[in-house]
Amino acid sequence: MKGINQTLLDTVIIERSRSSHKGDYGRLLLLGGTYPYGGAIIMAALAAVKSGAGLVTVGTDRENIPALHSHLPEPMAFSLQDQ
């Protein structure tokens, strides 16, 4: 087991360029949140954004999209029912 120290963190967590775009940091598609688990997809999207994923797209029940965007405006979202 390896201990976590400042040296390890400095090699893993790097400062992002001011001229970079969120698309430079990967793309993630999350599918889920069907009734009654709407909160799960919101928490997954929040974790994805907070952990540094670039472009986050969420496919979920249309009823979850307003709640998702009230908690987290960054991800793009679409209704699974419309696909």
TrEMBL record:
<dbReference type="GO" id="GO:0016301">
    <property type="term" value="F:kinase activity"/>
</dbReference>
<keyword id="KW-0808">Transferase</keyword>
<keyword id="KW-0067">ATP-binding</keyword>
<feature type="transmembrane region" description="Helical">
    <location>
        <begin position="28"/>
        <end position="49"/>
    </location>
</feature>
<keyword id="KW-0812">Transmembrane</keyword>
<keyword id="KW-0520">NAD</keyword>
<dbReference type="Pfam" id="PF01256">
    <property type="entry name" value="Carb_kinase"/>
</dbReference>
<dbReference type="GO" id="GO:0110051">
    <property type="term" value="P:metabolite repair"/>
</dbReference>
<keyword id="KW-0472">Membrane</keyword>
<dbReference type="GO" id="GO:0005524">
    <property type="term" value="F:ATP binding"/>
</dbReference>
<keyword id="KW-0547">Nucleotide-binding</keyword>
<dbReference type="InterPro" id="IPR029056">
    <property type="entry name" value="Ribokinase-like"/>
</dbReference>
<keyword id="KW-1133">Transmembrane helix</keyword>
<keyword id="KW-0456">Lyase</keyword>
<feature type="domain" description="YjeF C-terminal">
    <location>
        <begin position="5"/>
        <end position="83"/>
    </location>
</feature>
<dbReference type="GO" id="GO:0052855">
    <property type="term" value="F:ADP-dependent NAD(P)H-hydrate dehydratase activity"/>
</dbReference>
<dbReference type="GO" id="GO:0052856">
    <property type="term" value="F:NAD(P)HX epimerase activity"/>
</dbReference>
<dbReference type="InterPro" id="IPR000631">
    <property type="entry name" value="CARKD"/>
</dbReference>
<protein>
    <submittedName>
        <fullName>Carbohydrate kinase</fullName>
    </submittedName>
</protein>
<keyword id="KW-0418">Kinase</keyword>
<keyword id="KW-0521">NADP</keyword>
